[in-house]
Amino acid sequence: MSDLPPLAALRVFDAAARLGNFTRAAEELGMTQAAVSYQIRLLEERSGGPLFRRAARHVELTDLGRQLAPAVHEAFDLIRDAFAGVRAQAEGALTISCVATFATQWLARHLGAFQLLQPRLAVRVETSGQLVDFARDTVDISIRSGKGQWPGLTAHLLLPARFTPMLHPDLAASIGGVREPADLLKLKIIDPSDPWWPQWFAMAGVTCTDLDSRTQTRLGAQILEANAAAAGQGVAILTPWFYRDEIERGRLYQPFALTCDDGSGYWLCYPPARRNSPKIRAFRQWILAALQTEPGTDAPAVSPGSPAPPAGGRTS
Q1: CB 129 within 8 A of CB 221
Q2: Where does the pLDDT of residue 309 fall: very low under 50, low under 70, confident under 90, or very high at 90 and above?
Q3: What is the pLDDT of residue 311?
Q4: Which domain covers residue 194, as residue numbers?
Q5: Is residue 189 part of a domain?
Q6: Where is the signal peptide (predicted)?
Q7: Which residue has the higher pLDDT, 137 or 285?
Q8: Share of residues in the chain with pLDDT > 70 (%)
Q9: For residue 52, is it within any domain?
């Protein structure tokens, strides 16, 4: 590699050889004529002889320059073609990292509409609760749950993660019905370590609970907790917006209208430097517009007045 001349000098030589004029080469490359002359001089020192004959209004290649020019031009064409191929491949596929609940309950059900708008763009969805390292992972965009504060990333709020207890109607009937919030404590609580539980009970006026003493079983994702609740395995604290179909079919039941909001939500995230990527711009515009038309995304919720407990329990 040490035998290769500077790429900048080769780039200037290629432009000057094509255009036959240092001034025009400087204009094409956005350089001064003095800078062009300097780069040519460096290259002539490396090649061992003059590459151009200078005339009043133009320059001509010497025998040495004519020998070098085709190889340099072909090399730049190969580099351009290689980068064009890589860019076309990268821009032709969109990889989305998405938390399981959002992927299952909304994205998978609506992604076909995006693909109809972008038929040439292949889409790959990876479900994970782990934070993506955009500098290392081959992921274009991420949908995360949390407060939207991730250093070095642009984050757009897609959906507030409002929460309330939900269960199967038969489980409620097994204790004669759930008539007041404290009745929920008569049933099995799915993941009592979830920080949403004490917040909701506090807002519901239930100050004494036994959550800390209950068996701490964690399923790791809200969609898994919802499935357990729909199977009658206990009461889960969920974002009801995701489970409208389950409520309509009678598989889940929301006993109280009270929903809380601790500032958490589902966010579309990507590095700021990628904001103008055509595929990211297309997906961002589509998903933000699609969610604006969804009913229930702007329903009011109660925000707890006290600081929320540290996050834990589920990855959403």
Answers
A1: yes
A2: very low
A3: 37
A4: 164-248
A5: yes
A6: none
A7: 285
A8: 90
A9: yes
Return the CATH number at 16: 1.10.10.10
Distance of CA 175 to the CA centre of its chain: 44
CB 196 within 8 A of CB 222: no
Q: Are 96 and 102 in contact (CB under 8 A)?
A: no
**Which amino acid belongs to residue 284?**
R
Answer whether residue 2 shows pLDDT above 70.
no
Do 270 and 129 reside in the same domain of the chain? yes
* Three-state DSSP string of 25-83: HHHHHCCCHHHHHHHHHHHHHHHCCCCEEECCCCEEECHHHHHHHHHHHHHHHHHHHHH
Distance CA 232, CA 223 (A): 14
Residue of 80 and 38 predicted with greater confidence: 38
CATH number of residue 155's parent domain: 3.40.190.10
For residue 146, which of 158, 136, 138, 134 has the smallest C-alpha distance? 158
Q: Is residue 256 part of a domain?
A: no
Domain boundary among 89, 107, 127: 89
pLDDT at 198: 93
Number of structural domains found in the chain = 3
Last residue of a domain, one of 67, 89, 111: 89
Mean pLDDT score of the chain: 87
pLDDT band at 305; cut points 50, 70, 90: very low
Let me know if residue 310 belongs to a domain: no
- Same-domain status, 41 and 187: no
Asked whether residue 198 falls in the same domain as residue 218, the answer is yes
Q: Could you report the per-residue pLDDT of 234-258, keeping only the tens digit for each? A: 999 999 999 999 999 999 999 999 9
Query: Rounded to an integer, what distance in angstroms lies between the CA atom of residue 37 and that of residue 29?
Result: 13
Together in a domain, 14 and 79: yes
- Per-residue buried b or exposed e for 189-226, using 16+ beta carbons within 10 Å of the residue's own CB: bbbbbbbbbbbbbebbebeebeeeeeeeebbebbbbbb
Amino acid at 203: M
> pTM value?
0.69
Q: Which residue has the higher pLDDT, 61 or 305?
A: 61
DSSP bridge partners of 165: 237
